Amino acid sequence: MSARAHALERAAPLNAHPRVVAAHRRSSLALALPGLGGVLLAPLHAWFFGVTATDLAILAVAWWLTLGPGLSVGYHRHFAHRSFAAPRAVRRALAVLGSMGAQGPLLYWVAVHRRHHEYGDAPGDPHSPHQHGRGLGGTLRGLWHAHYGWSLASGMPSSAHYCPDLAREPWIVAVSRQHRRWVLVGLALPALAGLALTGTARGALGGFVWGGLVRLFLTSNLTWSLNSICHRFGARAFETADRSVNNAWLALPTLGESWHNNHHARPACAAHGRRWWQLDPNYACIRALAALGLASEVRRPHAEPQNRE
Questions:
Q1: What confidence tens digit (pLDDT) does each residue in 281-302 have?
Q2: Helix or strand or coil: residue 137?
Q3: β-pairing, 156-157 with 14-15?
Q4: Sign of torsion, CA 133 27 103 118?
Q5: Which segments in the chain show pLDDT lower than 70?
Q6: Of 132, 136, 204, 224, which has the fewest Cβ atoms less than 10 A away?
Q7: What sections of 100-178 are H helices per DSSP?
Q8: Contact assessment for residue 46 and residue 190, using Cβ atoms and an 8 Å cutoff
Q9: How far is CA 44 from the centre of its chain?
Q10: Which positions ≥6 away from 5 have C-beta within 8 Å?
């Protein structure tokens, strides 16, 4: 570990006690199980009941709400990077929707993400794919670690160190502690929507399987792909200390999050897409909130670092 990494580690403690790591591993596995269940149940559901337009509509809405306003606009751009300000009611809604995405409690998620930016592919980065050897084996080990394996191996970054701004707000602490409750709500609501739209138990089951379980599988893997694929495969528009890249193929599925090198070049910017063709639906969401008076102090692109394009 470099002198820089040692200095950072002393300043930013990571609780790697075996009991903490074991508890973290159990929690990560528990959060991944519903999505895995979706992969197993979806083909059976499609075989026996078929897939209806209602099922797919519920999936699309649930995917957008949790991955877009929840995890990307809320957890990431607002809470982790303070890319815009918002009234408390909007912030609560974003925090709850993000919690329904089953990516961990809000304070934990923000602490991990801010640590990731602090170390930026150096030793100490929780989920860099670049610290696992050379060759094909090292690449594959790194991709697995960055995509999901890190959550089974790393300790807990200190939220008191990384996000004291959020830890001072009691309601944020409460939402963070109630994370598993909101995950369950995120599974129940699609089932209730299916029941309300069709009036049948079959509709409720379809909503649960597609809008609940399959949606969690999709949003989880799309989020994890930013750690793995977007630090390995793509183009670099900006010179940054880390090895982040932009990946155009993932732009729409991740709603604009895969312009990852752009993001690492200026983390606090509310826009990740910087060119007209770099689609960024999440920035469009933030601009819509601002137009409605529900967001302010939006950090817009300006005075960019040296661009290689």
A1: 999 999 999 999 999 999 998 7
A2: helix
A3: antiparallel
A4: negative
A5: 1-13, 17, 303-309
A6: 136
A7: 106-119, 135-144, 150-153, 159-162, 164-167, 170-177
A8: no
A9: 28
A10: 119, 122, 123, 124
